[in-house]
């Protein structure tokens, strides 16, 4: 992703390449490059000191042709309309690639949650929901957690919406606590999806995943679950880094012990099961698989030439700059793009929505089995498209997504 102010332009750059290959007609092109609805709201909140602060909130519904908008809500000082719009667009393509009946949405509030009390955060969340209440709902727009939001925030959203409509509506939001209609397997879903597409890529390339050396950048929810699950199918996790530092062991790290250490210390830095490793040195390691699962813009032309991995699986959103991606592709590195690689989370969010609307909940094994089927189908669709058009997987994923949304747009026609 580019800097704020250019994030949407970066999305359009990726879109345009795929649209040209598809020979997308100008009218559909114009529709798919304009957000359907951008909402800006003011959220006054009485703070603990008695003063009133006014926070700016956004909710963007980029495209709802395939179904209700779907996308997280983030609380962060740097939230902007451009960022939220670009993220809503990416959600549109991610849902289409995953072949689930959702459009793309995203929301955010400009605030610093680290400087707010729990009561202030609850008041802000509820006021924000009240301001956008007409735009959200199980069949309109279904929010989810994102940066600095969690199960508790989702519970507040569900309760506020339910109070307004006069009945309990669990399907208005996903990422809820299990007790409030959340889905088993949701927390691990993104990391599980990363594991599945990495395994499928290895199979396609003729790389034996048993004993394959894996390096992971970022050991939050996505990175830690990806590492644990790849370890379970026989891969060797040799390196992990996070915000503070990292650890390397060529014989393989004990992931279970590392998870306990990270839980206690809030970092993998100084883990005794290997030697110290910096984020900078991670990129040049002699590994088979590299998983950037931290922030955007991590793989750039400064470090891409050093990468030796055969597979790069984008667990994070936008971890590779366009120039770096082009460089890796030209060198034959198999890059699994974010809109495919990390779509496990939104897929199980879809399952949560289905279970809430159905009023019947699945066992975790059933959730995981259904996720496996969806991720393999999505990977195969993108792989076959990349082979058909002789393009990289990122362009192929956009071709799949644009083709699906464009086809339905044509079928539905123009309402005037």
Quick rundown:
With 416 residues, the protein is an alpha/beta fold. Helices cover 45% and strands 17% of the residues.
Structure description:
It is a single chain. With 416 residues, the chain is an alpha/beta fold. Among the domains are: 35-170, Rossmann fold; 189-341, 3-Layer(aba) Sandwich (Rossmann fold), CATH 3.40.50. 45% of the residues lie in helices and 17% in strands. It is built from 14 helices and 12 strands. The protein has a 7-stranded mixed sheet with strand order 9-8-7-6-10-11-12, sandwiched between helices. A 5-stranded mixed sheet has the order 1-2-4-3-5. Strand 11 (311-313), helix 10 and strand 12 (334-336) form a beta-alpha-beta unit. The longest helix is centred in the last third of the chain and has 26 residues, at 364-389. The radius of gyration is 21 Å and the shape is globular. Residues 1-5 have low confidence and may be disordered.
């Amino acid at each position: 992703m580019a800097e704020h102010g250019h994030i949407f332009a970066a999305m359009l750059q990726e879109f345009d390449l795929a649209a040209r290959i598809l020979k997308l007609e100008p009218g559909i092109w114009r529709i798919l490059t304009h957000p359907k609805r951008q909402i800006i709201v003011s959220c006054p909140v009485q703070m603990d000191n008695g003063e009133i602060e006014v926070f700016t909130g956004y909710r963007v519904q980029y495209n709802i042709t395939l179904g209700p908008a779907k996308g997280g809500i983030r609380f962060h000082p740097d939230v902007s309309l451009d960022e939220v719009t670009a993220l809503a667009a990416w959600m549109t393509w991610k849902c289409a690639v995953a072949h689930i009946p959702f459009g793309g949405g995203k929301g955010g509030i400009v605030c610093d949650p680290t400087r707010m009390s729990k009561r202030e955060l609850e008041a802000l969340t509820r006021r924000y929901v009240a301001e956008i209440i007409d735009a959200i709902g199980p069949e309109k727009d279904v929010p989810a957690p994102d940066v600095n939001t969690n199960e508790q925030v989702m519970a507040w959203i569900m309760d506020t919406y339910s109070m307004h409509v006069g009945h309990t509506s669990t399907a208005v939001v996903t990422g809820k606590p299990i007790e409030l209609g959340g889905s088993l397997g949701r927390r691990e879903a993104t990391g599980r999806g990363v594991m599945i597409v990495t395994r499928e890529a290895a199979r396609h390339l003729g790389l034996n995943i048993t004993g394959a050396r894996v390096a992971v950048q970022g050991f939050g929810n996505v990175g830690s679950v990806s590492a644990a699950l790849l370890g379970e199918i026989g891969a060797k996790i040799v390196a992990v880094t996070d915000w503070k530092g990292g650890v390397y062991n060529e014989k393989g790290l004990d992931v279970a012990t590392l998870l306990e250490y990270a839980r206690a210390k809030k970092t993998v830095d100084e883990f005794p099961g290997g030697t110290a490793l910096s984020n900078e040195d991670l990129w040049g390691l002699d590994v088979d698989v590299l998983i950037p699962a931290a922030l955007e813009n991590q793989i750039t032309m400064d470090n891409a030439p050093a990468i030796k991995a055969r597979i790069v699986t984008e667990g994070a959103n936008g971890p590779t700059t366009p120039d770096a991606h082009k460089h890796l592709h030209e060198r034959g590195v198999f890059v699994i793009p974010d809109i495919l690689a990390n779509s496990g989370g939104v897929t199980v969010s879809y399952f949560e929505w289905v279970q809430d609307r159905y009023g019947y909940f699945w066992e975790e094994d059933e959730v995981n089995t259904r996720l496996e089927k969806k991720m393999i189908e999505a990977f195969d669709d993108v792989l076959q498209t990349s082979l058909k058009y002789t393009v990289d997987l990122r362009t192929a994923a956009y071709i799949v997504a644009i083709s699906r949304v464009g086809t339905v747009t044509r079928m539905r026609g123009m309402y005037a």
